Amino acid sequence: xxxxxxxxxxxxxxxxxxxxxxxxxxxxxxxxxxxxxxxxxxxxxxxxxxxxxxxxxxxxxxxxxxxxxxxxxxxxxxxxxxxxxxxxxxxxxxxxxxxxxxxxxxxxxxxxxxxxxxxxxxxxxxxxxxxxxxxxxxxxxxxxxxxxxxxxxxxxxxxxxxxxxxxxxxxxxxxxxxxxxxxxxxxxxxxxxxxxxxxxxxxxxxxxxxxxxxxxxxxxxxxxxxxxxxxxxxxxxxxxxxxxxxxxxxxxxxxxxxxxxxxxxxxxxxxxxxxxxxxxxxxxxxxxxxxxxxxxxxxxxxxxxxxxxxxxxxxxxxxxxxxxxxxxxxxxxxxxxxxxxxxxxxxxxxxxxxxxxxxxxxxxxxxxxxxxxxxxxxxxxxxxxxxxxxxxxxxxxxxxxxxxxxxxxxxxxxxxxxxxxxxxxxxxxxxxxxxxxxxxxxxxxxxxxxxxxxxxxxxxxxxxxxxxxxxxxxxxxxxxxxxxxxxxxxxxxxxxxxxxxxxxxxxxxxxxxxxxxxxxxxxxxxxxxxxxxxxxxxxxxxxxxxxxxxxxxxxxxxxxxxxxxxxxxxxxxxxxxxxxxxxxxxxxxxxxxxxxxxxxxxxxxxxxxxxxxxxxxxxxxxxxxxxxxxxxxxxxxxxxxxxxxxxxxxxxxxxxxxxxxxxxxxxxxxxxxxxxxxxxxxxxxxxxxxxxxxxxxxxxxxxxxxxxxxxxxxxxxxxxxxxxxxxxxxxxxxxxxxxxxxxxxxxxxxxxxxxxxxxxxxxxxxxxxxxxxxxxxxxxxxxxxxxxxxxxxxxxxxxxxxxxxxxxxxxxxxxxxxxxxxxxxxxxxxxxxxxxxxxxx
Length: 841
Prior knowledge:
With 841 residues, the protein is α/β, with parallel strands linked by helices. A hairpin with a 2-residue loop joins strand 14 (804-809) and strand 15 (812-817).
């Protein structure tokens, strides 16, 4: 009993001690909190009122260590009013230590009139990192511009910090950082869009902050992508290793699976055969060109001899790439060339490509040309395929590309249509639109000045849309012929038949049982191999050419049936419909008032059947090219008893406009790099201005400067040296002088486009006194010689082809010449009294 009583006493004593301890602890905490509050108040008072900056600085630091929320207003006030930099800095770091509770006050400080206060608040928020990110993101849509601007600056600093430590961030932190920056970027973008729509003022964000956020986000995403790739690679490697072990066991237990594996090998072999086919096509091309080649490596040939200038560079490598060429291909060709030629100073190579090279390829090509004197000759495979349709053109095609890239060639002085994708610049948007229109059977009319690039655009379209059968015909050969329809239709059929007979099949298992013709019936073919080619030849050899004396209207039905026969064969050969029919120089066959009735009927018959095949049967897309849009705008011919124009308003009109300044600069820079020539910015601007953006004129001006200025200045062309030749180009370039006379003025004079001639003379003669003339002034001066309708037609055409420029100012239209060189040339053709006659009072 005594023992139990003692135990109860001890228990009560322990409970009492514990209770006393808690009481004392509570009291001490109260005393401690009271002490902290007093200490905080003391430091706040000292920070606010002490005259000694050292004591104010110590007070700010102490408040940061205490981390009391009650100190936030005083510290914020210090940021706004404190004159001493050290005190303000200590207050900033104190707020950083206090953390989240200080964020709302710091956000509000971002709009304070004191620049130092705003900077300190921005710095403090950026140092808080992820802690401050949600509040900063919300602040991006504040109605106060200063808050938005400085919030973006703080986020930009956080982004820079994350970017610098991207490699050391954990995956979760990396993902969080990307999410935060994406949210901030979206807020900035959405606010800018709203401001642009509602308010004409700027949104207030600094471009450098936007760029920093974007660049950091890109780097962080790249880091995430690399980590994911690494993880995927490890998983794939482990998986493949495991599958290999399991596969070995399965094959040992199930030998029949070997048969399935062999099928995979067969498919791989078929891919190799496809590449071998392309290599054989290349060898055949060089054989037609009189060259000797041999295989070297998996995708290369060795050229050992060839007629012409290129023979001095042999032996040289030829690389065939089915994908887009990249800069590593240039490096590989340099290596192969060095292995073949040793220390020879004359090194060259040929690259055959199916896809246009990228920008890095162009830069690398120019680099090795200048640094290593290595000549790379790129040739599109589509050009080789076209040349193989007529083997006699192979040597000419090879000489064309060889002369263009071998040393001494003036790459600017290219007077023919440009088929080389490396020498073709600009027109990207136009090409994309034309491709889209042609794929959906839209008739296209491509119009523009001579030498404006229409034929070059057709060549580029042929290359870009080579998966379609392309028929490209220059109608100049039919000029003056009364009966040309049969010959034109024969040429269309012949080009399509060559594509059927020469194109290599690219797939298997296609059924040809649906192919039918009035001459031959092909029931089926299990594979697109030699059998399909034999069937195609059997069908097409029954196509006897139309007699050239036959009127075109009598051939329409037969021509339509032959196209319907060829269409499935073209598909069987690997092409896609529609057939693309490009007709260049259509003005050569447009009926005029002096043409006989039979010539007009030829036009109506040919274009009537082409329109039916395009619009009704959806087998063909038609594109015509011309200087003027007459074929699309003349409805009734002047010959009696002749039906109306079958393609009136059928074509969607596209005019080839001049280059922009950036396109001209890109052309001058890239071609100049290949020639070892550089133009300063002022010269590039001057060439664009003088040419009005017309690429042929710009190239000829650049060619002139390369001949006259570059040799004297080690390949560097600056405006001070070039100005002499830009001021008097016709004194040094007969090509430019003839261009304006033969290609522009003679065309206007031939078609009696007198209103356009008068407008150009009027604008030229008043250019010095009145650079811009109102539409009303032009009409008043040309009345009554020309009607207002005639003047409007002329103005619209001149503007569409880029000879004049229109500015809409207030409610008036002002016109001026776009090509200063045309004004100079025109003044050369006019006498002083003529110039005075055209001048406005």
